[in-house]
Task: structure prediction
Amino acid sequence: MALDLDTLNPEQLAAVTLEDRHALVLAGAGSGKTRVLTTRIAWLVHEGRVSPAGVLAVTFTNKAAREMLARLSAMLPVSLRGLWIGTFHGLSHRLLRAHHRDAGLPATFQIVDAQDQLAVVKRVLRALGADEERFPLREVQAFIAAQKEDGVRAAEVRARDERTRRLVEFYAAYDETCAREGLVDFGELLLRACELLARNALVREHYQARFRQVLVDEFQDTNRLQYRWLKLFAGPRTSVFAVGDDDQSIYAFRGAQVGNMAEFEREYAAGCVIRLERNYRSHGRILEAANALIRHNRRRLGKRLWTEQGPGEPLRAHQAFSDEDEARFVVEAVQRLAAQGVPLGQIAVLYRSNAQSRVIEHALFGAGLPYRVYGGLRFFERAEIKHALAYLRLLAVPEDDAAFLRVVNFPPRGIGGRTREAVAAQAAASAQPLVAAARATEGRAAAFVALLERLREQARGLALAETVRHVIDASGLAAHYRAQRDGAERLENLAELENAAAAFAEEWAATGGEAGEDPLLAFLAHAALESGEHRAAEGGEALQLMTVHAAKGLEFDTVFLCGLEEGLFPHEQSLYEPDGQEEERRLAYVAITRARRRLYLCCAQTRRLHGQTRWALPSRFFDEIPPELVQWIDTPRPSPARAPVRPAVPRGAPFRIGQNVHHPTFGAGVVIGAEGDGADARVQVRFGAAGVKWLAVSVAKLAPA
DNA sequence: CTGAGAATGATTTTT
DNA sequence: TCATTCTCAG
Result:
């Protein structure tokens, strides 16, 4: 695959060969987005407009970064050394390793994933004697992560109430702990990188002068911090090429700001917005359904997909009596398709929430149909892997308290809470890391430290994979799992970790790595930043089961979309979130646009959820798809959904639950409750910063938003 | 310190 | 319903 511009459509070509300026590319589903992005880079380099070292290409996933790099290497005969391509986190990590002193980090700083972060938060809350009833662990963690995603440090949080002030204290203490122990969480990677660039003019100017072309993929998923990150890398002579699709923004709950697209257009790309609306994936009816559905969203930049393929088959819809019947319907339809020769790997079953997979799996298993479920724990997130990694971290950084606590008693060696508390108290009193305090004790804790020191001594001079092997054996992990009845799989995973280390070391040697860096440190960072793909791969012999979120970016010949019911999809939780309904609709849009040829839409009248049987109406999304596109199977078309899950506001009240509203003082909010009617009507509204408030409809200047 | 039962709470999760 | 987390007795 050389650099081939002839097969690009006019819009793609315009984007690829755009003059040197900022641009926003609105790339619809299946419009050849990745191809445009990679061809753009190849074109810039090929034309001599930029050297590979002048390119910064940012993605969200490692998979996307790898794919872009692979395509680029195929298109360009030149060495791509010096090209910075990777995830926001991977690139931030690279920057921070190179400038750790300027960033105020130890050379051996460790990356903690969400799991590790939770453990640190827990430790901090315990140390502060926090009321864990009032401040659940997960909420505190979410608060800290959300603040970082917004680029806000503890000292900068505008705390209006007592509760927030307390949360800020936890946030500050958490950051202090991380700083003391040399730990950096995902948000911190980006925040530190931003602060480094913002404060250090020398570093900033160096990178701004170097990167003449900045390209961003999946721009609709960027959060506030990532937007800032991009602005800091983009100097006065840099062109930013942002590619995204506001209609596929489905990660607001993780801090993504769809508004970044409009903001970017205003701030950078004014007058240079290119729309890729020609779709190469789906048949006409599927696109029409998607277009019709998404038109119900109000906040859009606007886009309408089209295709030169014919209309194709009608969409098929089915309302089953129960979730089990729904699963049976899927199984029977899949069997018919399989009999027609459709490969199972080209069929996907999508659902809103993971809990739905159980029933479907059960039915598939009963029918003997092979399937693969995506989601769940990934390789580097498995307990046995995290344990092994903790030992490795302790080799690299003895003073890593988080790692210490994880394995001090694993495998069990009789060091319980009592001993740990004593060691922790000693460490706190002498302002030392836990290892140092433990070394000074008599007994088991000291013996553990001796074990660590022995391991470190023995690992000296060993290759990375040998070190991993040695640690697994000499730490007692291998023996522990060997003795367990169901430890075989865990042992296999540990063996796989050794393989992963070997593969990593080889890759490391081939690319040279960063000068002077320790391969063990690099491997640990790799493990944290790339927790192992668990997303679907093309082909295969098995049916693919996954959430709609996990399906983003993928495509299948046939898609079954299950559980299209009010309360499930759109999910009832979304009623309480600002713009929740629109996000759910975008999610449905993503689901629909995954299908190439056949799309089945399923719902059930009853569903077992949390042990109870619940009744549900067909999703409102059915009403938003033109009926002439849909063929109902075995079911007369159900009556329109309309009725909300919760009772609506009493008669005559102008607001419905789930509705977005605006208040002159509190700003944007969403109606989450109501009582009374007429002159007494009151509504409960959740505002962003101001929190939840009850407002009298007749008094408050509340307007629909 | 450890294992067994109770309590809990339960969308989505690229890094 | 069910999986994970927490508490308490041995």
